[in-house]
# Entry
Amino acid sequence: MKTVQLIHNPGAGDEAHSKEALTQLIESAGYVCRYSSTENKNWQNIDPHTDLIAIAGGDGTIKKVAGALLKKEPAVRQLPVAILPYGTANNIATSLNIKGSPADLIRSWQLSKTISIDVGKVNEGIEPSCFIESFGYGLFPYLIDEMERQGKNDIEEKDLKIKEALKLMHNFSHSYEPRDCELYINGEDHSGVFLMAEIMNTRFIGPNLFLSPYGHPGDGTFEVVLIPGEDQQKFAAYIDSKINDAEVVYSFITIKAEDVRIKWKGTHVHIDDELPDVKESAPVHVQVQKNALVFLI
# Structure
């Protein structure tokens, strides 16, 4: 029998995503299940003889586990990872086209294939230094900060939380001051004045914003997504259309990249869902770490 290490966020989801329910589903599918809760400090102890790591939770849980795996020896770091998504946005799972009930996904593991996933590496002393979704400046990290400050992250109902995030972003997209950005992508100068500059590894970020239509977490490149200051009203209209479920077409500036050097005149910066302390106009160097992890799709 193959052994599954289930790493579970017990603070999210409902009874269908409980320890008991998930363990029973995995064992019923013919696996030995070893259970670890992210609330237990020993959850990072992964036996290298495990056949599969299953992550039950949202994007935050996936990023936490991925960060831990990147620090492990190759025998553990290259273990295949399966996602059982039940977070608010599930941007990582959606970018990999992983969807379905826990029961359906667990049954599919026997027939699933593996894919190598890239990770973003920030080389200029920012902690955490790796990202799965995106690293960027401007309006989006400002939204992350305001969601926390206004208590919106405490909203339990997924659709309502996403809607509230979009409403906040719409309000800020009118008033947020675009900033000067010195930007070199693969050695070419793309500097300008931007509302947002996002170095994306997944296709979606935040409240299911589909900003990177041509990207994939395993294609060996980022997509740098730029919202010029002159497009401020167009971007606001795009967000408004998402709130009202009638999406307006907006063509984002997207540039394929493996190496990015950036200086942002401001301090609103994020790395995935965290807000590191960075000095204004501090130089930052970001590179793709190719084939860093293995996921089941």
Q: What stands out?
A: The two ends are 21 Å apart (CA to CA).
